[in-house]
Amino acid sequence: MATVLTLPITAPVLPKDYTPPVASSSGLSAPHPSGHRILLPVGHAHLNHLRLALHHAHDFESFDAHLDSEREAKEKLLAAAGGDEDDHGVGDEAEPADLLALDPKEWKKQDHYAVLGLSKFRYLATAEQIKIAHRKKVLKHHPDKKASSTPNETILGINVNQNTNDDAFFKCIQKAHEVLTNAEKRRQFDSVDPTFLDVEEDLTSITANDFKKKKLDFFKTFTPIFELYSRFSRTQPVPGLGKLDATKAEVEGFYDFWYNFDSWRSFEWWDKEVNEGSDSRDDKRYTEKKNKSERARRKKEDTAKLRSLVDLTLSLDPRIKLIKQQEKEAREAKKAAAQNGKPAKKTKAQEEEEKKRLEEEAKKKEEEEKAARAEAKKAKAAAANAAKKARRLARAEQEQA
Amino acid sequence: MSSKPLTNGTSEETLPSSSLPPIVGINFGNSYASIAVFTKEGLAECIANEDGERQIACAISFQGEEIYIGNQATHQLVKNSKNTITGFRNLLGKKFSEIPQSQSSKSAPVIQHPNIPDEPAYKVAVLQPAPAPLPQSTHNSSFNTPAASHAPTPRSEPVPAERILTVSEVTTLFIASLVESAENFLGKKVQGAVLTVPPSFSDSQKDALEKAATAAGVRVLQLLDEAAAAAVTSTSDIWAAELPHDRTQLIVDLGCSSLSLTLLSIRAGLAFVLASSETTEVSGLQIDDILIKFFAADFTKKTKTPLTVCPSSGVADERTEARLRLAIEHTKRTISASSGAATCSVESLKDGLDYTGAINRMRFDLLVRSVYASAAAAVSSLLVAAGIDAHLVDEIVYVGGAGCLPGLEDALLSSVSFREDVGTPFARGTVVGGGVGDPTTVLARGCAVQGALVAGIPEDEAHAELRKAYERSTEVNGVRATSKTVGVLVPGAGPDVDAALGGVWVPVVYNETALPARRAVRFDVELAEDAKKVALEVWEVTESIRVEKVLEAVPVEDDEDEEEPEEVEVRHREVKKDACFGVVLLDAKLGIQTKGKGKDAGKWFTTVEVQFIVESSGALKVDVKELGEGGATGSLTVAAPGS
C-alpha cells in the first residue's frame, strides 16, 4: 500500500448554502514529456519505481500484491531459519513508554514479568523462557548498546544527550531476572503478583446476595475463581469445580480438597524493610517481629478468605441441593416401601407419572360428569318446553270449544 | 513450547539478511576523498584510514623507495613537491592537448607521456631497489667463479631512476589504497564499490575512472553523480524526520576546487534534477588563499620578516606557503566546529621562526565575505534560471569541506530570500560531531547505501533489465512528471481557512512528481450536526509567491538619531486555482462527537482518506473513503489530457 500521510489539519464544516462548482476542465494539464526529467538512479524509491515500471507495467495493485508476497516469503524464510523455534514462544512484547520509564529504586513495585516481556506467561513461565527473555532484553537494553544507537536530540540548538538515565531500565531488567531466577523470591513475588491481585479483587468480591439478585450462573461465576487459586496449591493437579452432572464423589472430592487447601502463598514480599540507618539490633528485631506477625495475619486472612469462598460456593452449589434431594427421596422411597411392603423401587419420575395419570383420570371423569349434567339439563328443559306447549294447546282447545 | 535444549552457538553461517554486504562507498573528489562502509550497527558510516583521517587527501608522493598516499603525501608538498602528484582526478580520461598548460608548480607537473601520444603523465624521481644478489649456484664448478679480486665488493644500493605514471595509473594506485583501508576495517574482501563523479565528467572520463577502479581490483557497481549521492543520504530515514516527503532541495557543494549547485525535486524518495550549475570561480581554494594571506601578514607583523604568498615569490616563500596550507586545514576545522579562537601554528615557518596565530569565526567570516557573497550570487542566479522562487525551496543540503562553515549558511540565508523555516543540517544541529548532516561525509555514505541496494538485486535473468537501469546511458530513468499541483479543496469557512480559496487546500500530488504516482493523505473533517456532508473538490493549482513590501519600524537605538522605517519584503505562498475536475460528495456515516470540555466539545468529526493515482498518461483517479469499517466512499476519474 501507498504510505498514507496523516495531516495535522481539520477541514471546516460544509456551508449550508454550498453549491458544488462546475468542472472547468476535463483533464490535468499535460505532464512534462517523457525524458524531460531524468530520475537520479538512487534510493529505494527509485528501485521500487523501476520494478513498477519494468515488471508490473505501472500497475500499483499488482505491485502491491508482489511486495506483499515477497515480504511473506521473507518472513517465512526467517521463521524457517529458526527465527522463533528456539525462543520457547517468548516472542517480542511491546514496551510501552511507562514500562521503560520504570525506576529501578522502586523495584519492589515493578511487574517483573512485564519487564522481561513475559506477561503472557507469568507464573507459568519456565526457567528456560526466563533465561531467553532476559537475554533478549539485555541485548536490546544494555547501556553499551544504547549509547551509540540513540541519537542526540537537539533542544534549542544545543546537543543534549537525552540518555542521562540510560541504564535505568537495564537495572530493572537485572532486578527482574534476579527475582525470577531465584525460586524463593519468585514464589514470594508470585504470591502477590499485581495482576493476580487485580483479578482476585475482581472475582472474589461476590456475595451470596449479589449472586441471587443478579441471577448469575453458578458455574460461570465460580469456575474462574477456583482456577485462579489453584496456582497456589502444593498438590497438583487441582480438582476443578466441574459441571452440573458431576457425580457425588466428584463434588465431595472437590469440597474436600478445597477445605483442606494446602497453599504455598506467602506474604514476605510486603515485609517492611529494616530501617537503613539504624544498626540497632533491637530495631531490627522489632521490625522482624512485626513483619512476622503481619505475614501470619495476612496468611490467616488469605486462608479465611478462601475458606469463606468455599463456604459460599457450597451454599450456592445447585449440585448439593440435587444430591440432598435425591438422598431425601431415596430415604422417603425406602420408608414408603417399608410401609407398603413394596420394594422401594418407585422413582420420582414414576411417581410423577402416576400422579399425572391420576390427575388426568380425575379430569376426564369430571369432564364426563359435566357433559352428562349438561345433557340432563337440556333434556329437562326440553321436557318442560313440551309440557308448556301441551298446556298451551289444551288451553287453546278449551277456548275454542 | 519445545523442550529442545538450546545449542550453544552453531557452525552454520549467519542469516544472509543480517549480514551486510562488504560494499564500499567512495567519494572521489579532486582534492579529498572519503570512504564509507556498513558498520555492525547496520548504518553507513564514513570510516578513517590507517592515518586516522576521514578526509583523505588525493595526493601521492614518491620519496626515495617509499610511496606516500593520502595526507602523508601532502606533507611532501613542502620539500618534495616535484615528486608529489595532486589534483589528478580532473585530468582522468582527458587528452594531453585538452589540459590547460598553465598548471602551477606546486606539485609534480603534467607532461606529455614519452611513448603514448597525447597522453598526460607525471614524471617522478624514485629510487629503484637494488638488484637482488645473484642466486648462489648450487654446484661448485670452477668455471663460473670469478677470479678473486682485491677490490671490495660494491654495496648493493638502490639506483636512482625516473618513473613515468599516467593519470590512470595514479588513480589506480590511489583507489587501491582506499579499498585496502576499507578492507582492513571490514576484515573481509570488498565485493564492490560505488564511486562519485562530478557533474562535469564526460562519458570518456567516466569510462577511464571505471577502468582505473577495475585495475585497482574493485568491481564498480555504479558511478553516481555527486548530487545523486547526496540525494541518497538525504532521502534516507535517519536524515530528518520532520521534513516533508515532497520537497524541493538545494544541494550546495562547495569543494576545494569548485562550487556546484543542484536543485532537486524530491517526491516521496524519487529525485530528479530541476537545475544545476557548476563554477570554478568560487572554491575552497579561494578561502585557503585568503586565510594564508591573513596569517602571512600576521607573521610579517609579528616577526618583521617579509613574506609574500599567494602568489609567492621565491622558493623559500613557496615552501612557507605550502607549510601554511597544511596548517590551516586544522584551523578551518576548528572554525567550523566552534566560534572561539582557532589557532594556526607552524614550527619554523620561515627563516627558522616559529609562528602561532589565531583567528575567530567572526574575523574569518569577514575575511571570506567575498567568497560567500559570490556563492550566494551563484545560488540566486541558479534559482532565477530554474524559475523557482527561493521561498519554495524546502531544504538546503551542504556538501564538501567548506560546506561545514556556518558562515556560508548565514551568508546564504541572509542574501537569498529563503523561507525562515527552510530545513538545513545546521538548523537541525546534525553537522558537528559526526552527525548525519556532516557535509564532508554525506557523499561517501550515500554511495555505500546505494552500493548495498544495487548489490542486493539478484543476479538472474529476471532482474537483468533492472540491473541495466543502473548502468549509464539508460533510458529507463527518463520519466514524465506533473507540471502542476493537484489536490483537494474542502470548502467552508473558519479561522484557518484561506479566504481567497474558500476552503482548506490539501495538496496531494505536487508539481514535478514523477509519473505514475500514487499518494494518499488522511485528515479530519468537521461535520454539521444535522447534515453530515463532506464535499471534496478536486482542483489543479499553481503555487506562486506574492511579494509584499512592508514598512517595518526598526527598533531605535538609544544613541542613534531617528531611523527611517525600513522597507522589508514579506513573501507569501499563494495558491491560485486553475481548473476544477469535479467534486466528491460524501454522506459521513462514522462521525464522532467530541466529548469533554475543550473548545471542540460537542462538535462532530470524521476522518477521510484521499488517494490520488496519476497514470503516466496524466489520467487521474481519486478515491475517497471515510476511515473505519463501513465508512462512506466516493471516487472520481479524470481522463488523460488530450484524449
UniProtKB/TrEMBL annotation, chain A:
GO MF annotations, alphabetized: Hsp70 protein binding; ribosome binding
InterPro entries attached to this UniProt entry: DnaJ_domain (IPR001623), DnaJ_domain_CS (IPR018253), J_dom_sf (IPR036869), ZUO1-like_ZHD (IPR054076), Zuotin/DnaJC2 (IPR044634)
Compositional bias ranges of the Basic and acidic residues kind: 348-378
Domain J: 111-193
Cellular compartments per GO CC: cytosol
Chain segments carrying region Disordered: 275-301, 327-401
PROSITE patterns: DNAJ_1, DNAJ_2
CDD domains listed in its UniProt record: DnaJ, zuotin_NTD
GO BP field: 'de novo' cotranslational protein folding; regulation of translational fidelity
Pfam families in the record: DnaJ, ZUO1-like_ZHD
Protein name, UniProt field: J domain-containing protein
UniProtKB/TrEMBL annotation, chain B:
Record key words, sorted: ATP-binding, Nucleotide-binding
Pfam assignment, any one: HSP70
GO cellular component, one term: cytosol
GO MF term (any one): ATP-dependent protein folding chaperone
Coiled coil regions, renumbered to chain: none
Transmembrane parts of this sequence: none
Biased composition (Polar residues): 137-147
Gene3D superfamilies cross-referenced by the UniProt entry: 3.30.30.30, 3.30.420.40, Actin, Chain A, domain 4
Region described as Disordered: spans on this chain: 133-160
Protein name per the record: Actin-like ATPase domain-containing protein
SUPFAM superfamilies: Actin-like ATPase domain
Cited InterPro entries: ATPase_NBD, Hsp_70_fam
